[in-house]
Amino acid sequence: MDEQTRAYAESEKPSIKRVLAVDLGASSGRVMLAAFDGIRLELREIHRFDNMAIEERGSLYWDVEGLLKEIKVGIRLAAEDQPILGIGVDTWGVDYGWIGQDGALLRKAHHYRDARMGKHAAELERLLPRVEQFKLTGNQPDVINTVYQLFSDLQEAPELRERASSILMMPDLFHYELSGVKASERTIWSTSGLLTAGGSGADTDVLTRLDIPSELIVPIVPAGTVLGELRPDLQAELRCGPMRVIAGASHDTASAVASVPYKASLSAESERNSESAAFISCGTWSIAGIETSRPVVSEAAFERGFTNEACYGGGNRLLKNITGLWLLQECRKHWNAEGENFSHTDLVSLAEAAGPADSWIDPNDPRFSAPGDMPERVRQYCRDTGQPVPDSPGEIARLVLESLADAYGRSIDELEVVSGRAIAAVHLVGGGSRNALLCRLTAQRTGRSVISGPVEASAAGSALIQLAALGELDFARRADIIERSFTLERFEPHSRTN
Fold first, then answer.
1. Per the database record, which ranges form the Carbohydrate kinase FGGY N-terminal domain (predicted)?
2. Which of 241, 319, 412, 461 gets the highest tally of CB atoms within 10 A of its CB?
3. DSSP sequence for 37-50
């Protein structure tokens, strides 16, 4: 029994510390109440809500005002009968809001799937070629990146240079609404294509060559920064106490990786041999990567599509973005619109019953990136590539899951080549960790043990970072806390799959 566990056992009434983790994904959001008794972390969903894109005059936007209202509902519900020490928000990457000279949101925040960047990408890449973007920022060039969006906005609305005081990434925007404090948290900004690789400030070469005003970017702060207290007017409105607003690892993947219990996968022998464990954060998007001490900006990393983003504590995540459960979500949405009533569990069961797929798709093919009739797009991909065409929902779901597992496997293999490090195991966290079929397929395809969980990885990571920022836990003990707090399941490469 270690000292912390002994102290807990000897304490008759351990003090419970509570924080709120607001986790906003690209399709839904939730407010999670995290309670820490010194040994275990307990997560309870307080409020869940949809996060749907708004289409207006051919453009896609986020409903920032609606999301803020939902966050406030969660705060009110959580604080009814218990003190809350802190609150932190994490979101998807790359998107942002424009703040006017009066301190208010200047216009609607665009969705990363908006089409406007396609009109200006060629000019941006003429001024700043793709390989130079990667060398300077460590980010893989992509039209959804903040730098492409910001450049496009300034081309189409140059008056923003005078009208705007700053831009705030999505979690920074919500932290600002809650605390009144403007800050740019490092992990979310490391997705932007605007920061110096491995640094903590905007890259002056990028800004100069693209004529982006440096004053639009407020100072960068490290993950785990306590910004201040919840605004007094919100405390009164929500009938809650003066909780702290904390900029944790506010990029959802950075937050999820903060909850990865590496100790559960690596033996002492593995650690001595410098073997690493990879992570796959599986949700609407899937992100496969490893943690490194510094960005990897080699030609091999660029050519293989890897990107670099910041970790809590100052490290680096070398990773690849893969179109994830978005494919299955869109299939389910289409089938249910036609009169089916499939749950995610139903689709996994149908995929199990269908047996091994006869075909394969590339999940990152551009045809799968936009909303629409995803089952037909899968079938058309198979026709176009001369493969057997799946028919039933179960066959299509199985093909999608096998193709995702294959994409994961290829990414893990490439990670070893690019990083020069052996990968001994894979941690699969997030909503996809509940999909036992996907976990088994991933173990088989990668040839490595897969450890699934925690499911609510982003919320767990956010809570751990907040509690560490408040001095309520030692973050170095996170693996022990996660193992005691959540069910982790292990899948071996020889696991049987129907």
1. 19-257
2. 461
3. -SS-EEEEEEEEEE
